[in-house]
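Researcher: Let's do a round of design. I'm pasting the structure tokens now; please hold your answer until I've finished.
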């Protein structure tokens, strides 16, 4: 078993006494490979930090960026995503034992999403698994998992795991016109990268990899490129998209569209099992609405025994989608049924398309039936005591966009 990153990180056994400095322990906020060109397009000069990198919070305005994504296309910087490459003859077996889904039938050139759980059946992260071949797999995670991966591969000898995050600049491209923009970039009118697929391509002499997605409830793509070619690729995408009025998308708009699409974010909509301080905070896949992502027929995977029992007993809580009256987001608000707290809004946003507030919430499973209504309770800026609003929330499907 080999673990490699910019600086090798020791396994969990030695973390308390011997950790070499890595980008996750470095207080500096770094620019992404696209920053030199993306910063020129920022009219607001508003920036956010993501995994230790600077990304634009807003380029122009929420309204303009949202309109581009939903009606033409938008580009956004995904370079701070954490990316691990797993290689070796045991690579597929190793990755499969971490996942609640079965990687056995996933072919080269395809990718899936899956929870990874601890031995108690609690979700650590929701990971994307991209298969190059049986002995080469890329993992995209929301958080640093290198030490946890080390602890899970002690009995597999022919596995090497490298943190390849700095080796790829990643540009997202989503929207109704994204296929036409990509076709112009790669000089191929027949774009073949449907959601769930990925592979190599050539963009006028530049070697790139393209991942087909349906991110943010829109047809889209990720363009993976050598950081040295990042500026050229960004400029070519913007140039190819001028006819469609393509705009760059900031984190604020991305977050709003994530909520519209019902996509859960660790650390926001649930607490990772690695970070939970209290026993009632971690969530199982069943509590997160990920029942179909758990394959209990697999011979072995992390948390299988616990999940088998949890499947019998049923979830204590459920993550649900909400429609909320009013026009203001109410993230953090309590949800009341007959005056008693039944849950909490974890994410919320105003939806320009649907002209209503949408949200994600964790509630008691007893109140999780679609159509259930709640009163909304939250603290205002002028009084510290919570107050019951006249607003109401109703459970809807996690993704309400067509």
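Researcher: That's everything. Go ahead.
Model: Designed sequence:
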């Amino acid at each position: 078993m080999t673990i490699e990153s910019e600086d090798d990180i020791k396994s969990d056994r030695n973390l308390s006494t011997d950790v070499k400095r890595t980008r996750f322990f470095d207080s500096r906020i770094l620019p992404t490979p696209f920053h030199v060109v993306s910063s020129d397009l920022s009219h607001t000069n508003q920036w956010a930090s993501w995994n230790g990198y600077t990304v634009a919070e807003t380029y122009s305005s929420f309204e303009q960026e949202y309109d581009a994504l939903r009606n033409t296309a938008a580009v956004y910087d995904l370079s701070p995503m954490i990316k691990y490459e797993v290689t070796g003859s045991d690579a597929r077996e190793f990755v499969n034992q971490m996942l609640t889904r079965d990687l056995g039938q996933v072919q080269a050139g395809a990718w899936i999403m899956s929870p990874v759980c601890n031995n108690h059946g609690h979700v650590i992260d929701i990971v994307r698994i991209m298969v190059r071949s049986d002995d080469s797999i890329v993992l995209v995670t929301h958080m640093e998992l290198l030490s946890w991966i080390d602890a899970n591969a002690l009995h597999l000898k022919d596995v090497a795991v490298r943190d390849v995050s700095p080796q790829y600049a990643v540009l997202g491209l989503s929207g109704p016109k994204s296929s036409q923009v990509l076709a112009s970039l790669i000089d191929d009118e027949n774009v073949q990268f449907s959601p769930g697929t990925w592979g190599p391509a050539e963009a006028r002499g530049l070697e790139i990899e393209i991942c087909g997605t349906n991110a943010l409830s829109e047809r889209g793509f990720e363009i993976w490129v050598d950081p040295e070619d990042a500026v050229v690729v960004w400029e070519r995408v913007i140039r190819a998209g001028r006819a469609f009025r393509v705009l760059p998308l900031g984190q604020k708009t991305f977050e709003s569209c994530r909520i519209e699409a019902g996509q859960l974010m660790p650390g926001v909509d649930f607490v990772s099992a690695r970070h939970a301080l209290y026993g009632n905070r971690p969530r199982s896949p069943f509590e997160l609405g990920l029942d179909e992502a758990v394959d209990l027929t697999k011979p072995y995977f992390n948390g299988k025994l616990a999940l088998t029992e949890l499947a019998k007993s049923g979830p204590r809580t459920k993550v649900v989608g909400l429609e909320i009256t009013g026009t203001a987001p109410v993230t953090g608000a309590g949800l009341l049924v007959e005056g008693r707290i039944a849950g909490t809004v974890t994410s919320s946003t105003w939806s320009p398309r649907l002209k209503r507030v949408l949200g994600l919430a964790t509630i008691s499973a007893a109140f999780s039936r679609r159509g259930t209504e709640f009163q909304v309770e939250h603290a205002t800026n002028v009084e510290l005591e919570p107050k019951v609003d006249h607003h109401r929330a109703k459970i809807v499907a996690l993704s309400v966009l067509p």
